[in-house]
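INFO batch 0412 | record 1 of 1 | parsing
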Amino acid sequence: MTFRPFTVARYGVYAALAIAAMSVWLGLQAGATLDYALLRAVFVFVIFTAIGFAGEAVLTIGWQPPLPRPEPSANEQTREEEQL
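INFO prediction complete | emitting tokens
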């Protein structure tokens, strides 16, 4: 399964934005002041964005596309056989 670059991070940022907005709404519904609700939303956004980028890093660390290996020519094969 292959991902486009930053797929997990992109959706992690979208999810963080949605959760931060929900955090503001829930905070205001619970009677918190607007500045406290926004501060909490920023904190939630930063944490969830970090989780999204960490997930992206975990999925892509050490991954490199396989390099095509050239087929040895007939001359190289005969040289290797002669050396044996």
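INFO post-check: The CA atoms of residues 28 and 34 lie 7 Å apart.
INFO record closed
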